[in-house]
Amino acid sequence: MAKKLELYGFNNLTKSLSFNIYDVCYAKSEREQKDYIEYIDEQYNSERLTKILCDVTKTIQAHILNISKQDYDPQGASVTILISEELIHSAQIDNSCNKGDLLQSRDTILAHLDKSHVSVHTYPEYHPDNSIATFRVDIDVSTCGQISPLKALNYLIANFDSDIITIDYRVRGFTRDKDGKKLFTDHKMASIQDFIKKETLKKYDAIDVNVYQENMFHTKMLIKEIELQNYLFNSDVYELPPKERLLITNSLRKEMIEIFSGSNIYG
Predict the structure, then answer these.
(1) pLDDT digits (tens, 9 = 90+) for 82-123
(2) pTM tops 0.90, yes or no
(3) Which of 16, 96, 105, 116 is catalytic?
(4) Is there a catalytic annotation at residue 121?
């Protein structure tokens, strides 16, 4: 914003950023698929996700009040982090973000920013009759006040292997300026893509579906190039004959296109 808005009272606009990130992998046997799931569980366990969430809190310039954690048997974990737009000195701060002494399993992180929240959920999956395994991350960042969740966008994209990204952003409610005029947004916006680094956008085909009158913005991104070695789990691309490489690449691309389009277009 070129000029700071002069408001009457508290900025109570709600800004919500939600997106799904998908990572696709080729794992031929059921054993390889199970190993891939175990790898994802370890790579994106609650320790790693909590570190990401703490960094998101810093990125949007919020403050952590308390962290509550729970491990589950046989796998999975949940973490709840209470945070505030302003630093509350009287609060009992859990500084687990600085300790590295965190949980060991994978799944869910939920953070609250006053009336707002940040949440991360992971969903690794495979089917024994299909050589393609996928890892989905659901992320929601919802803030109330001056803090913008869009500040976390590039950081979050950079911290996951992202073949397909689906992003929604919406501003809800209204606030008032000092003269009593209702303001339904406090920043100009044409596209979510304007908040993504140009070097990142160059790697993707991206489309927008926006409803400007409702302050609703939607962007979908599909990776352009498939470097096959990056998609093989415990396999070397040079051990595969050219025909098999082509078949695997086509299978990966079909999977990505169906996820991107949201339909089983290949049957």
Answers:
(1) 666 666 554 444 555 554 333 334 456 666 555 567 788 888
(2) no
(3) 116
(4) yes
